[in-house]
Amino acid sequence: xxxxxxxxxxxxxxxxxxxxxxxxxxxxxxxxxxxxxxxxxxxxxxxxxxxxxxxxxxxxxxxxxxxxxxxxxxxxxxxxxxxxxxxxxxxxxxxxxxxxxxxxxxxxxx
Length: 110
Hints:
By secondary structure, this protein is an alpha/beta fold. It has helices at residues 12-19, 31-40, 45-55, 75-93, and strands spanning 2-6, 27-28, 60-64, 97-102, 105-108. Strand 4 and strand 5 form a beta hairpin. Helix 2 packs across helix 4.
């Protein structure tokens, strides 16, 4: 698994599509939005993320980093923010490579 994360509109999908153009790896974009749907459904996010990791070992996962900025006052949004952070930690521990994209510039952190 390869994890690409960073702020919104930083070029994560473009980078993934160019780097993995051969199509050998499945590119999964919007992981953070999937986590939001799980939080809204009151699902066991940790269990779902473990299932995802086991089921997609060769995937390139793209996730917005929503951990910066003002902490949301809405309880669901706070749960989402925490769930995305914990999910990114789990994904990074199970990834061969972790890349943070900032202003279109990739920085390999693992």
